[in-house]
Design a protein that fits this description.
This protein is mainly α. It contains 4 helices and no strands.
Length: about 120
């Protein structure tokens, strides 16, 4: 997984309410708050819907610092693989018009698998 995707995924998982995520809540908070401090000047937001990292203004050095922060905290906690169980959910917001071309290209790269009927029932 590319580094930027890794950071964004872990940050999103750490701010989620997933009960099955194998990162304890205090560690989730620590990871997010340390990452926040690397890319922002003020304190992290307290409202859950505002706890999102905006990495658009970051540099390669910032990204490397975020990766090292996340990996070191997870390693210190003995977590080497992230696991969770949660069914996919519907988007909470519509995609922006600017994002639609990217979404369409991704759908072409990774189309949904076709529904395959059980051949034993078809007879």
């Amino acid at each position: 997984m590319p580094d930027l995707q890794f950071v964004l995924m872990v940050a999103a998982l750490c701010t989620s309410d997933l009960s099955s995520l194998n990162i304890p809540e205090p560690l989730r908070t620590t990871i997010f708050e340390r990452c926040w401090a690397l890319v922002n000047d003020g304190p992290p937001p307290t409202r859950a819907e505002e706890r999102v990292l905006d990495l658009r203004g970051g540099t390669e050095v910032t990204l490397e610092a975020l990766i090292e922060t996340i990996r070191s905290l997870l390693t210190a906690a003995g977590i080497h693989t992230l696991t969770w169980e949660h069914p996919p959910s519907e988007p909470t917001r519509p995609s922006t018009p600017e994002a639609l071309p990217l979404i369409e290209r991704l759908n072409k790269l990774y189309p949904d698998p076709p529904d395959v009927a059980d051949s034993s029932k078809a007879q």
